[in-house]
Amino acid sequence: MPVPMSAGLLFALGLFAALWLVAGLWAVGRGVAMQRRSAFVAGQTERLASLLEASPYLPVVVRGDWRIEASERLGRWLGLDAGPRSFDELRGLGTGLDAQAHEALRQAILGAQRGAKPFTLSLRPQGSHRTIVCQGVAAPQSVGGPGSVLLWLSDATDGQQSLAKARIERDEAMAAFEALSGLIEAAPFPMWFREPDLRLALVNTAYVRAVEAKSAARVIEEGTELCEPIAGVSATDAAEAARAAGAAQMRTVPVTIEGERRIMRVVDVPLAPEGGRVIGIAGYAIDIQELESERGAHRRFVDTQRELLDRLSAAVAQFGPDHGLVFANQPFRRLFDVTAEDVSEGRPLARLLDAWREGGRTPEVRDYPEWRQAHVDWFALPHASEEEWRLRDGTHLHVVAQPTPDGGLLLIAEDRTEQVQLASTRDTLLRVRTATFDNLFEAIAVFAPDGRLHLWNQRFRRLWGVDESTLAAHPRVDVLMNGLADRLAKPNQISIVQEVIRAATLERTQRAGEIRFKDGRHFDFASIPLPDGNALLIMLDITASRKMEGALRERNEALEAADKVKTAFLSRMSYELRTPLTSIGGFGEMLQAGYAGELPPAARSYVDAIMDSVAVLGRQIDNVLDLAQGEAGTLAVERAPVDVRALLGKALADAALFAEAEKVELVGNLSDNLGSIEGDAPRLSRVVGGLLDNAIRFTAPAKRSGGRVLLHADGDARGVEIVVSDNGPGMPDAVAAVTKGQQAGTQTGGIGLALARQLVAAHGGTMEVLSEKGQGTLVRVNLPRGM
């Protein structure tokens, strides 16, 4: 009887059966899955093979025994007839790899086999332009077994060329970028770059230095701006405006650079490659402080220059590159009738020429359009042009047109009418001068400062007997004069002429001399320095004067001899007369004293007349003796105190009877301060008495009534002044000659004045005679206190 199973066993059997069923179902499912996976793998393999075939990369497996697993493309790439199956088949005759490339590949594979070292080679098959890049690594064990190497080959013919070109372009771009970066960094002015969000991304050293920051990184980090906001416009606003406009924006703003306020020109440039999206804003700032200063100075210079041009006498106008009138000074406006409207409108030169022609301010020409175009073409000339314009009213203009570097024109017109007239006058004067020179009695020559003959007249040429051609060569004075020495009586005297000319040209001193020619002619010559540095040589023929001088010298010698005889005769005669006169006077005094008894009245009057005549004759003899001694230089005077007032009073008293007899009023005006002087009283008495006697004598015949003689005397600490004046007819010519130091014969008045002058001079005084015909005579005598 079957043993009944327990519940536990039944449960275990059920569980086992369930597990078995599950395992069977899992195995079936696993088999189905594997089948499906195998089919999937097969499909994937086919697809991978297709992909590898279509891929630009060709896998090649080199096994440890150097067998090769690869597709037929490898043979085509290497130019082989069939796909290689071993490594040695990669090398063929004229095809495949050459020996060097084949060996290099072998060594690389060996390295990968031994050290699992990857490598990359560039292979070029023989007879082909193809470039194959070979990248090798140790192959996994599942791919080719131990010692296998997996090679990935790619045809890089086009890629290598493009890569090489790209590398070259990259290198060039990098070099350019580095150079540009270096240039930006080394730029002396601030430069920066902003990202699209307008934040600073790059600044150069000049920027860092300008904002006084520690580094560029600190500037970028803190966003330090170079320019402060101006009128509510910040630096980012200006950059945004440049980006919106799509073009560079320029502004001039004040900027503080290293603590100093400067004027900067700031430029923001949007960067958009080939018109694409803006990738950033570049900017730079240039210090134009000096430029603005120079511009201001230039404006002030232009204003000052134009103010100066207005004061010039020359007419000046400036035209711009567009041929328009830019400026005209006041003389130009007056000369060409240019208005302020012409200047403000920038009237072209062509239109101005038309207006000037209508106003008669251009010369008359045959073809005006051609002339007008030629003058408009002044702007294009590389050099200045000069013309002479003769206007209808006789005005003569010198016109200069100077093209300016900016394409404009500077026009200068100078009114030379007066100069032309002066030149004509000068030419006339030169002709007159030449004619005058040639007709002068003197021989004249002008020498330049360098000693060359400059001008001469015909008398100079004829005097020295020189050809015109010789003088026309303007020889030097030494050459000229050395050739003329044989004309002189003493040839060595030619050096005197040279020295005189040299002194006038170099030392600027005037000198003179005298020379004699062989033919007996005498010439005085002198050199005179002229204001222009030249020297004037004048030669005067004094031959006749020399002859006359000789004759006069002989006559003068004869007169001097006769005068000496006359003086000696007068002196001897005076002494001879004095002896009998002394005897006559002595006997007359004895008769008057009664030694011969009492004389009757008639005899007494006779004796008195004799004594008066003796006295007059004695005075005349003394005068003659003094005059003779004065002329001989032997006149001696005594030195004793003389009471001037007493001396003059006695002279008035002695002359009173003679004046009363001649009916002439005699007046004395003697000062109280006359005092005394050192002198010879008798001779001074004769001087005053002679002057009073002459005055009375010459006044009486002309003035039968109303004749008047005045004796005036005054004194000071230095001396005494005595004046004798009358209202007579004046001095005769012969007597007047005595006042000029000439001889006057033996007239009484003449001898009196001549003697008076000598006696006054002997006392150290002076005598002055003033006489006017019909008005009278005045004699002034000045005597010093001491001799």
Task: Tell me what you see in this structure.
It comes from Sphingopyxis terrae subsp. ummariensis. This is histidine kinase. Pfam families: HATPase_c, HisKA, PAS_7. It is built from 24 helices and 27 strands. It is an alpha+beta fold and 787 residues long. It is rod-shaped and about 250 Å long.
Q: Secondary structure elements and their pairing?
A:
Blueprint: H1 7-54, E1 57-62, E2 68-69, H2 73-78, H3 99-115, E3 119-123, E4 132-138, H4 141-144, E5 149-155, H5 157-186, E6 191-194, E7 200-203, H6 205-210, H7 216-222, H8 235-245, E8 249-257, E9 260-271, E10 280-287, H9 289-311, E11 315-319, E12 325-328, H10 330-336, H11 340-344, H12 349-358, H13 368-376, E13 385-390, E14 396-403, E15 409-415, H14 417-439, E16 443-447, E17 453-456, H15 458-464, H16 468-472, H17 477-482, H18 494-507, E18 511-516, E19 522-529, E20 535-541, H19 543-593, H20 601-632, E21 640-643, H21 644-661, E22 664-670, E23 676-679, H22 681-699, E24 707-715, E25 719-726, H23 733-739, H24 748-762, E26 766-772, E27 776-784
Parallel strand pairs: 22-24
Antiparallel strand pairs: 1-2, 1-5, 3-4, 4-5, 6-7, 6-10, 8-9, 9-10, 11-12, 11-15, 13-14, 14-15, 16-17, 16-20, 18-19, 19-20, 21-23, 24-25, 25-27, 26-27
Helix pairs in contact: 12-13, 19-20, 20-24, 21-22, 22-24, 23-24
Organism: Sphingopyxis terrae subsp. ummariensis
Protein name: histidine kinase
Pfam families: HATPase_c (PF02518), HisKA (PF00512), PAS_7 (PF12860)
